[in-house]
């Protein structure tokens, strides 16, 4: 029986930094540019031994009551949503004069169609740390009380009071997506054009733009590269497929038999690695994984990497992270026949985002499922089943017990499993050291098509969420 999961949303307030906006009724025009002040941070070493040094942030903070889980045992559950923001520093409570300006706009994906929820947006005159060009332990941005900021809503919108001034920087961040734009803030209303507040679609530090370094196995079906292109990380052909050569990520030949994963140095160049469905199906020795490769995957995730696998490739979750879940048939990674599941979205923030999407994105036609029956969600081409996910308890640096086990985003019945009416986890993510792993029982993208299907949208949302920062020192990984 799959365990139930408590999903905790995080709301952030700036204490003492609010107030009425003087002159907000007067319209003003913002002057926008692309120059940005950037500092290069020191990065967490990527070798396995160094990744336990605790120089990142973790999910293990509570509310000070010593028992965030509410069960009286002092344990901490890390299933809550994390953003690119640490707790604000209220200082002495005196944040200066009342703000005289209002900054508002909307954050979209690089494709300028998908709204981005939970993105950090703030205004600063200080230098902003760049995204390291390698795997690292992502630390939350620390903002003091005088820094105006907000998190975007489910529809991607943002609005916050600020002080007018020249030569400021508007910063938009979601995980390793970072955009910095020069901004003159005038008294009154400052409406930010959408093409100045969207997530960037390329790595271009000179223009104030960073994106995650991504490696994707080039396999078919489950062409994740098409989904990334439609998100805005590549050009898209008329049939919805990636235009070869335009991708802003690295494609790995799936004929390499997994050799890419046998080189930890090569893996550590990337923030996210995708090992979709059919990429591993025909490798020699499958579904067994060489021990050295398992060690590399663990070391990569522990040091801050984000690891993704789907259905046929479930051994690349089961092998490195066996204590997190129990697959229905671990000896054979394929369930035949593939099944369609009428599932349910469990995560409230994911549900709110899906509900806020405009109708044309909820129904892309072509016989694809729609999003008009939420929280019900139809997933297709499921080739695996999860019987249950487990609590995985580790001790953090403060001596608190922390649950780093899987968070269940979507659940549904497995028609090809024993007890086909049982609701099972279908899309999950867990924490391992300073990184996270993610798995879905369904293929993400079986055939090229225009638009993003419901399960492709779920993938993109989960990827953005698992790339967000830690707000305290992450606990060490569990003993294997």
From TrEMBL:
<protein>
    <submittedName>
        <fullName>Uncharacterized protein</fullName>
    </submittedName>
</protein>
<feature type="compositionally biased region" description="Acidic residues">
    <location>
        <begin position="56"/>
        <end position="76"/>
    </location>
</feature>
<feature type="region of interest" description="Disordered">
    <location>
        <begin position="27"/>
        <end position="98"/>
    </location>
</feature>
<feature type="compositionally biased region" description="Polar residues">
    <location>
        <begin position="28"/>
        <end position="49"/>
    </location>
</feature>
<feature type="compositionally biased region" description="Acidic residues">
    <location>
        <begin position="86"/>
        <end position="97"/>
    </location>
</feature>
């Amino acid at each position: 029986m799959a365990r139930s999961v408590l999903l905790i949303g995080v709301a952030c307030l700036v204490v003492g930094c609010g107030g009425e906006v003087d002159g907000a009724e007067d319209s003003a025009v913002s002057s926008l540019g692309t120059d940005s002040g950037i500092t290069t941070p020191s990065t967490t070493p990527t070798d396995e031994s160094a990744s336990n040094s605790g120089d990142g942030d973790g999910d293990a903070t509570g509310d000070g009551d010593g028992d965030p889980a509410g069960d009286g045992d002092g344990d901490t559950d890390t299933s809550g949503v994390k953003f690119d923001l640490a707790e604000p520093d209220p200082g002495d409570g005196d944040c200066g004069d009342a703000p005289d300006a209002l900054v508002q706009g909307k954050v979209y994906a690089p494709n300028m169609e998908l709204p981005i929820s939970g993105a950090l947006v703030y205004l600063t005159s200080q230098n902003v740390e760049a995204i390291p060009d390698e795997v690292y332990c992502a630390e939350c941005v620390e903002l003091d009380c005088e820094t105006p900021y907000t998190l975007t809503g489910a529809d991607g919108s943002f609005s916050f009071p600020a002080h007018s001034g020249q030569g400021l920087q508007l910063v938009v961040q979601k995980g390793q997506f970072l955009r910095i734009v020069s901004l003159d803030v005038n008294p009154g209303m400052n409406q930010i054009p959408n093409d100045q507040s969207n997530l960037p679609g390329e790595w271009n530090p000179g223009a104030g733009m960073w994106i995650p370094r991504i490696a994707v196995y080039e396999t078919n079906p489950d062409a994740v590269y098409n989904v990334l292109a439609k998100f805005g990380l590549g050009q898209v052909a008329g049939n919805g497929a990636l235009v070869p050569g335009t991708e802003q990520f690295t494609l790995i030949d799936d004929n390499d038999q997994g050799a890419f994963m046998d080189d930890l140095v090569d893996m550590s160049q990337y923030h996210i690695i995708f090992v979709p469905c059919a990429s591993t199906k025909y490798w020699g020795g499958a579904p067994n994984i060489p021990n050295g490769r398992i060690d590399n995957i663990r070391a990569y995730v522990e040091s801050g990497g984000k690891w993704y696998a789907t259905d046929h490739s479930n051994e690349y979750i089961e092998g490195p992270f066996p204590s997190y879940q129990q697959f229905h048939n671990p000896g054979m990674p394929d369930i035949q026949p593939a099944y369609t599941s009428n599932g349910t979205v469990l995560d409230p923030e994911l549900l709110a985002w899906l509900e806020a999407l405009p109708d044309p994105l909820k129904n892309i036609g072509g016989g694809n499922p729609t999003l008009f029956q939420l929280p019900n969600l139809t997933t297709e081409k499921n080739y695996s089943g999860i019987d249950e996910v487990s609590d995985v308890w580790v001790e953090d640096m403060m001596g608190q017990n922390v649950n780093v086990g899987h968070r269940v985003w979507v659940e549904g019945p497995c028609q090809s499993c024993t007890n086909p009416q049982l609701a099972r986890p279908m899309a999950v993510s867990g924490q391992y050291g300073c990184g996270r792993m993610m798995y879905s029982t369904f293929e993400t993208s079986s055939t090229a098509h225009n638009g993003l299907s419901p399960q492709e949208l779920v993938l993109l949302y989960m990827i953005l969420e698992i790339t967000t920062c830690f707000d305290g020192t992450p606990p060490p990984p569990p003993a294997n």
